[in-house]
Write a structure and sequence with these properties.
Blueprint: H1 2-55, H2 72-83, H3 92-119, H4 134-144, H5 149-177, H6 194-205, H7 210-270, E1 304-305, E2 311-312, E3 325-331, E4 339-344
Antiparallel strand pairs: 1-2, 3-4
Helix pairs in contact: 1-2, 1-3, 2-3, 3-4, 3-5, 4-5, 5-6, 5-7, 6-7
Signal peptide: 1-24
InterPro entries: Pest_crys_Cry1Aa_dom-IV
Biased composition (Basic and acidic residues): 327-336
Length: 345
């Protein structure tokens, strides 16, 4: 009897212990499961929180463009949160969510990098910087062109603006170089004119980069000074030539006037001879006498008498005198007894 009672107690104890163990095990299983659930929930909450931060970096739900205020600082902060998830185990759902977050974060990171690269192409005044790094920008554009075409299109316009400014600088530099005879910029080409200079100057004025514009303007000013001096020299030469031509014209006019006056003087001298009424006979008896008793004319009174009484002016020089022989013809009956005569020259 005592032996049966012992075995009964032993069985009950064993059953009790087993039941307790089973209960404890079940509780542990439940606890572990709950812990895992809570861990997954916590991980999920963390991933969701990170995803929300990533989403805020985009302007729209389709994640086509960056939001205003998206910065590298925000990118770096999210990157640290993601690094903390490395090495952890996730269920399939959380793993898929995390991959989506990583992909969105990767795109937004590249977008911010491209935006920073394009921004660094310009100074604070919107002018392209010296030695702009287009190679990195172009690589980033190629990387994002397929996944973020709308964003890339916006950035491409900005890059094209910078490249256009560089092109204008290169074009203006080339045109300025063509104004000089050598690479040392010491001598301006002699064939350069003001019109060509003005065209090049306008190209330089269109440059927005201060450094390039300042350097090219220095050379342009040198060309301007050269042209100003050249134009002044040409002006003076033209003025001297004009004055010389005017002086020559005055000289020719004076010479022509002197010749005309000489001809007039000669003609006047020839025409100063006394007039004749038809011949050279003195009928009034008052003909002038020379010291030798002959009539003398200080002017030129002789000429060729014709039967018609016309007088031909002699071709003698001024001052020539003529002598004639007087012949007394007697006393005139009809003129109060005055005598008359003739003179043969």
């Amino acid at each position: 009897m005592k032996k049966k009672k012992f075995w009964l107690i032993t069985v009950i104890a064993v059953v009790g212990i087993g039941a307790s163990s089973a209960i404890a095990y079940n509780q542990k299983v439940k606890a572990d499961k709950q812990a895992r659930i809570e861990a997954y929930q916590k991980q999920g909450a963390t991933i969701n929180k990170i995803q929300e931060k990533v989403n805020k970096l985009y302007r729209d739900k389709q994640k086509k463009l960056l939001a205003e205020g998206t910065s590298q600082e925000k990118i770096d902060a999210i990157k640290k949160d993601l690094e903390k998830q490395e090495g952890k185990k996730f269920n399939a759902d959380l793993a898929a969510k995390l991959n989506t977050t990583l992909m969105d974060f990767g795109h937004v990171t590249n977008m911010v990098e491209l935006q920073n690269l394009t921004k660094n192409l310009f100074d604070d005044k919107g002018a392209v910087v010296d030695n702009a790094r287009f190679d990195e920008v172009d690589k980033k554009i190629v990387k994002l062109k397929e996944v973020k075409p709308q964003f890339v299109a916006v950035q491409q316009k900005i890059v094209d603006n910078a490249k256009l400014q560089v092109k204008k600088i290169e074009e203006a530099t080339n045109k300025v170089n063509q104004l000089f005879a050598g690479a040392d910029y010491k001598e301006v080409k002699s064939e350069v004119n003001r019109g060509e200079f003005n065209k090049v100057k306008n190209l330089v004025n269109e440059i927005r980069q201060e450094k390039a514009k300042r350097n090219l303007s220095t050379l342009i000013n040198k060309v301007d000074q050269y042209l100003t001096e050249k134009e002044e020299a040409e002006r003076i030469a033209t003025e001297v030539q004009k004055q010389s031509q005017e002086a020559q014209s005055d000289t020719n006019s004076s010479s022509s006037g002197s010749h005309s006056n000489s001809s007039i003087s000669n003609n006047n001298t020839g025409s100063s001879l006394p007039k004749s009424s038809g011949n050279n006979n003195y009928q009034n008896g008052s003909s002038p006498k020379t010291s030798s008793g002959r009539s003398s004319n200080n002017g030129r009174t002789s000429g060729n008498n014709t039967s018609h009484g016309t007088w031909t002016p002699p071709q003698d020089k001024p001052g020539t005198t003529w002598e004639g022989e007087e012949t007394d013809k007697g006393q005139m009956d009809s003129d109060s007894g005055r005598t008359w005569g003739t003179i043969d020259w």
